[in-house]
Design goal:
about 425 residues, alpha+beta, FAD/NAD(P)-binding domain, D-Amino Acid Oxidase, Chain A, domain 2, 3 domains, 12 helices, binds flavin-adenine dinucleotide, binds iron/sulfur cluster
Length: about 425
């Protein structure tokens, strides 16, 4: 019977067509081999990455490779790529690990960001901008009533994150960082509680990589912090469960973002319509996980059906994801370790916006790591200035927005006071 090495499989489908008994089934990111397999071996030759193995075949990739860098960054989202780029620009040797085979894909984001928050990190570029927006409309949906409020926003963008994330990783590589895709961190190298590196697994096998500082930028699903003993567990009430379609064939103002607030629309959260150019938009919503009586996807289906201009469209992509909308973590560092972005729960608790925060945190972490490495001390105390810089720059505002999220319970989100708070918050996504 044939075995699939999931770390290697690129889900290309080349093996499926050669199987004479139809024993191979390719799901989106899963390859299944059924009992019908007759061990003919044809699929082994068809696989471009050697991901299939006959039973009894000796494993060749168990030999650990050992390498050393100043910094290993785990996760090539905006937080990780900016951290890697800045650290490399500061002269450090950097390895950026990404578990997916393509940086930026699949996208888990509504892709909105304000110009003033983006521009300090990268020059806006039409290659990864789908729409430029300058206006916002907030609709408060009550029992049988809808009140719309217009807001002239500052300049902002709806990104094409699939390209945006990749360009940031390319910039990290151009600055001198080594980037490895399809390579997942699977653990940390720990010595007396001090982080000394990472264990990673990818097509090249299992590696033990030593470094002075690990930067965990591994997103909402982060494991790097817990591996080092940092508690990043999210209470259910601090998770937004989200679903989004890219709808095509709709009529919307391509320069306006729309927000919909109301218990019936999205309990504890909101729905959004972010234009992606003429006739298409990211249409999604997030619901507070402990309040929702139904799945986010079902809320979304009902929301789209309730809006005639959206109901006429067709979904061309479906995306689901979780957003941490939590109180600030008490610690963002441990000895030899720093957390940035969603891994550090640095998302705005009112809006769920986290791209700009992740990039800012990535830059701050790189700067503090460089100073600590130069001083030869990467203890938690030496890395703690990162926590202080984060609180002084954006963290204090995130703490305030968490308090506001708590103050305005789901029933109070149709009040004019919440409108005002929310209008300010969405201006800073
Ligand atoms: C539905 C939805 C809508 C959103 N809309 C917006 C919005 O409009 N505007 C906004 O600003 N923010 C938005 N966000 C939030 C935004 O997407 C995140 O805050 C942002 O992507 C955080 O960046 P990051 O670099 O911290 O993490 P991520 O972008 O999540 O990147 C983490 C990376 O780490 C990789 N990784 C994870 N584990 C490992 C491992 N063990 N080894 C190697 N690699 C690993 C992942 O594959 C991933 O590429 C939205 C989120 C969701 C879910
Ligand atoms: S070994 Fe032959 S029968 Fe088995 S899955 Fe591969 S191609 Fe199909
Ligand atoms: S040919 Fe190889 S990489 Fe492609 S789907 Fe089959 S096992 Fe995976």
């Amino acid at each position: 019977m044939i075995k699939v090495k999931v770390d290697r499989c690129g889900y290309c489908g080349a093996c499926v067509g050669v199987c004479p008994v139809g024993a191979i089934e390719l799901a989106e990111t899963r390859l299944l081999i059924s009992e019908a397999c007759v061990d003919c071996g044809l699929c082994l030759a068809a696989c471009p990455v050697g991901a299939l193995q006959a039973e009894g075949y000796a494993e060749t990739d168990a030999v650990p490779l050992r390498r050393r860098y100043d910094v290993v960054v785990v996760g090539a989202g905006p937080g990780g790529s900016v951290a890697a780029r800045e650290a490399a620009r500061l002269g450090l040797s950097v390895l950026l690990l990404e578990k997916r085979q393509e940086v930026g894909s699949p996208v888990r984001c509504a892709e909105g960001i304000a110009h003033e928050l983006l521009a300090p990190f990268i020059e806006p570029d039409p290659r990864w901008i789908s729409a430029e927006v300058s206006k916002a409309q907030i609709e408060v949906v009550g029992d049988g009533t809808t009140v719309a409020r217009q807001a002239e926003g500052g300049k902002g963008y709806v990104l094409e994150r699939r390209v945006f994330d990749r360009v940031l990783a390319e910039e990290a590589a151009q600055a001198g960082a080594q980037v490895m895709v399809k390579t997942a961190a699977t653990g940390l190298l720990l010595e007396d509680g001090v982080v000394r590196g990472v264990v990673a697994r990818g097509p090249a096998g299992t590696m033990e990589i030593e470094c002075a500082v690990v930067i965990g930028a591994d997103g909402v699903e982060s494991q790097v912090g817990p591996w080092a003993g940092l508690d990043t567990t999210l209470p259910l009430r601090d998770v937004m469960a989200c679903a989004q379609y890219l709808l095509a064939g709709i009529e919307i103002d391509p320069a306006r973002c729309y927000y919909y607030v109301g218990q019936g629309v999205a309990p504890g959260g909101y729905a959004w319509v972010f234009p992606k150019g003429e006739g298409k938009a990211n249409v999604g919503l997030g619901v507070q996980a402990d309040l929702a009586a139904d799945s986010a996807l079902n809320y979304l289906t009902r929301f789209i059906e309730s809006q005639p201009n959206l109901a006429q469209g067709s979904p061309v992509t479906l995306m689901v994801g979780g957003v941490p909308v939590a109180a600030p973590l008490p610690r963002l560092v441990a000895s030899g370790l720093m957390l940035v972005g969603d891994a550090a729960r640095q998302v705005d608790p009112l809006t769920g916006g986290g791209i700009a925060n992740a990039m800012l945190a990535g830059r701050l972490a790189a700067e503090v790591a460089a100073q600590a490495i130069a001083a030869g001390d990467t203890s938690a105390e030496a890395l703690a200035p990162y926590e202080e810089c984060w609180m002084a720059s954006r963290g204090r505002k995130m703490a305030r927005n968490y308090r506001l999220k708590e103050r305005f319970g789901p029933d109070e989100r149709t009040s004019p006071d919440f409108w005002r708070v929310f209008t300010v918050a969405i201006g800073a996504i």
